[in-house]
Amino acid sequence: VFQTTLAHIATQLDAELIGDPACMISAIATLQTATPCAISFLANPQYQAQLTASQAGGVIVGPRHRELAMARGATLVVSDPYLGFAKLTQWWVTQTRAVCEPGIHPSAVIDPRATVASTAHIGPLVVVQAQAVIGDGVEIGAHSFIGQRATIGAYTRLAPRVTFHADCHIGTHGLLHSGVVIGSDGFGFAPTQGRYEKIEQLGGVRIGHHVEIGANTCVDRGALEDTIIDEGVKLDNLIQIAHNVHIGAHAAMAGCVGVAGSTIIGAGCTVGGAAMILGHLNLAPGVHVSAASVVSRSISQPGQYSGFFPIADNASWEKNAAIVRNLTTLRDRVRRLEKI
Amino acid sequence: VFQTTLAHIATQLDAELIGDPACMISAIATLQTATPCAISFLANPQYQAQLTASQAGGVIVGPRHRELAMARGATLVVSDPYLGFAKLTQWWVTQTRAVCEPGIHPSAVIDPRATVASTAHIGPLVVVQAQAVIGDGVEIGAHSFIGQRATIGAYTRLAPRVTFHADCHIGTHGLLHSGVVIGSDGFGFAPTQGRYEKIEQLGGVRIGHHVEIGANTCVDRGALEDTIIDEGVKLDNLIQIAHNVHIGAHAAMAGCVGVAGSTIIGAGCTVGGAAMILGHLNLAPGVHVSAASVVSRSISQPGQYSGFFPIADNASWEKNAAIVRNLTTLRDRVRRLEKI
Amino acid sequence: VFQTTLAHIATQLDAELIGDPACMISAIATLQTATPCAISFLANPQYQAQLTASQAGGVIVGPRHRELAMARGATLVVSDPYLGFAKLTQWWVTQTRAVCEPGIHPSAVIDPRATVASTAHIGPLVVVQAQAVIGDGVEIGAHSFIGQRATIGAYTRLAPRVTFHADCHIGTHGLLHSGVVIGSDGFGFAPTQGRYEKIEQLGGVRIGHHVEIGANTCVDRGALEDTIIDEGVKLDNLIQIAHNVHIGAHAAMAGCVGVAGSTIIGAGCTVGGAAMILGHLNLAPGVHVSAASVVSRSISQPGQYSGFFPIADNASWEKNAAIVRNLTTLRDRVRRLEKI
């Protein structure tokens, strides 16, 4: 088991340490579950009561909770404790996870016309096709597929079983989770005589630096031009990004979201889980869509937008839904009363 | 083609048989489609009329339909006919499906530090990493991936193409369908200066015995502690289970459901298709959520809960939705009328 | 880079060409982005203004825009310009994409009892099990899996990483995208004593000719009879089709749709993104369901149907949702006023 000291952690986080620098730490934990061998953190002030009661060997806090934390025990003060916690987890992983050695697993099937950096790691049973370019320090997990002319930027990691199609591109320091499909065909057909004629999707997908995409999420290739995901975007699991969508920098979307074709999502937008954004819309930067809401029109003003039917016990819902189904009648009854 | 007799089936189901024990049966079918070579069942009393008209060689019924069934033809009486049907399908499969022979396919890539039971079946092109433990009678389908230190309990089956990440665990007699991802990173970031800093997900996933998980469903690993799925849980396809969710024993969820982070779902809950459960909530045991409903608050009382906008012809919906969008106005008009 | 002439394109599309037949074309583009080396098209009359301003080397139009287009420059006239565009993309792909050579990649694992046409292409690390039949001109992408007795009709293409289970069948000229799972178990259990007993799914999946299924979409096998997808159906990404659903010919569904068990969807229906269709329903041919709508009852009349809560700024939504939650109260207040 990995062990370190509070002093070492304080150095990593550039934190002020008040308490025993030699105290041994072997875990990161929440305030409630931390033992004296664990380090914890207080980011959300509503957990302040848990701070006082915590058994943690040390607690990372911001300047405003410095006194309260010191009264409890060992304290690490940083300007942003949630960011400090994030950086601690990142450093922790460098100390505890197995390193991927550079090299190509002998079971991988690499086209001789592909370019693979000597510092890249290619896992077992990976397929890399002709003219693909795999950058420095890239990790490609088992069972992943890289299509023709695709490029994977330096230090980007693909978990096992990622499918990254031909003519798609991702920048550096990205992370694609298992089951991701980048560059499947957009859904485009010309209706004719009661059936559909396929419109071949000739664009690709362009993904910026520092993008993370969750498990089983799909990003379709563009019809003529590329589907674009800008720098720093974070997508959760099971999201559908249709063809020719453009997601602005540092936008984030929770699981099960759908974005229909050609919609433009501004920088810094957030979309809650299972929200649905229709096609050919434009969301201004700084629009925040609540979970399970349906965006059916463009939104030009930043702010929080919501829209889902409130849940209730089934009998109440049935009654309310019946009235909703006939709201014009209720409105007309009010009109009639007003005319009396 | 597999054939058996009514007598043999009656023995398997511990059923009382009224009719010719030597009658040959080569299929299981619904009452409507059954031929004299097929066995059928009556579980839902609303199909009673179909019983009388059925051509089935034999029908499984409960005690209350014994006389009605006997008047038609050969009858197998069991205490719970739907359960009897379920057990019949299970026995049928043992007689008709190819057995997976124990052993490791030569194309599989097994780390020498992994432990694979000699009675386990490892399919073609499977990857098993170091320190993983594969139990007795386990079946791992083609293209599946088992990460470091993961454990697969005895008699659990993984369909082709399941990704089961490092430090995740499943009990015995489980069934994971194709495309399942267990242990992808939870969606955790610390926002800082207009971008997101990744919080590495240090927990794992712990799954109990007798759990079934549907195709392309994702279960994220926990941030610090494990995501937990208790014994007997059944999840359908394309479900998203976020980090640190806890699903209680024998809960069941239909397809396309999303459960956001840290939510606790009580034992025996059911969730209808495409329902969405927000994060950090607590659903008491025995809560039943209807399809397409959004759970935005904790629910402490068992019962059925619903909430979706009723569908209508498009013109009616547009009118009703416009009124919903201005319901405060309608309410204020009623208030004014009341004050007259 | 591929280059052709306007004359050559006109011949391919059976179009009347007005303009320089020798004009070189190396791209297809939208009216707005087209350069003189690109060919474009006007299908939607609302983009008429873009036509006049376009720099395209040639524009495909219908008869009604012939004069307008000619006033701008080189013009190709066809009866249906969107269909013409579709066919142009199809021809373009035949000229620009690498041809899949017939043959079986040496890394594929093919059961000797499978039948693979000599004109089929089997990619790297594909698994084909016993008694499977792969037709003429079929392409099976890397990492795909074909189960026992499954049949793949002539000229059908499977992208990399498709899982096509035992006893499932697809006709000719189909296209299955990455991550598709055909024939996973339907979600069927008999509840007994607080737990669930599995109902083995003994049916398969039958898919007609010219069917396209999007990335990570799942089609479950039937309980006793087959799940059926008729000719010409188009399914987008991340769709869930439950057991024993029947989708009629030339129906189309956008991403994230769910269809619950045993529902019958008529020919030519369309379903918008993230709509949810409950189980055991019947949708008549020509029913069109809007995005994000929940179909909770059978629909016997063709037409457009909708139902989702309108989005608003969060504060407005909260107020309106609170009133919706108590609509019976508002209705009762109106009643009382009427009785005065």
Output the keywords:
6 helices; about 350 residues; eleven-stranded parallel beta sheet; alpha/beta; homotrimer
Topology diagram in text:
The structure is a homotrimer of 340-residue chains.
Chain A: E1 4-5, H1 6-13, E2 16-18, E3 24-25, E4 27-28, E5 38-41, H2 48-53, E6 58-61, H3 66-72, E7 75-77, H4 81-96, E8 103-104, E9 109-110, E10 115-116, E11 121-122, E12 127-128, E13 133-134, E14 139-140, E15 145-146, E16 151-152, E17 157-158, E18 163-164, E19 168-170, E20 175-176, E21 181-184, E22 189-192, E23 195-198, E24 205-207, E25 212-213, E26 218-220, E27 227-229, E28 234-235, E29 240-241, E30 246-247, E31 252-253, E32 258-259, E33 264-265, E34 270-271, E35 276-277, E36 282-283, E37 287-289, E38 294-295, E39 303-306, E40 312-313, H5 314-325, H6 327-339
Parallel strand pairs in A: 4-5, 5-6, 6-7, 8-11, 9-12, 10-13, 11-14, 12-15, 13-16, 14-17, 15-18, 16-19, 17-20, 18-21, 19-24, 20-25, 21-26, 24-27, 25-28, 26-29, 27-30, 28-31, 29-32, 30-33, 31-34, 32-35, 33-36, 34-37, 35-38, 37-39
Antiparallel strand pairs in A: 1-3, 2-7, 22-23
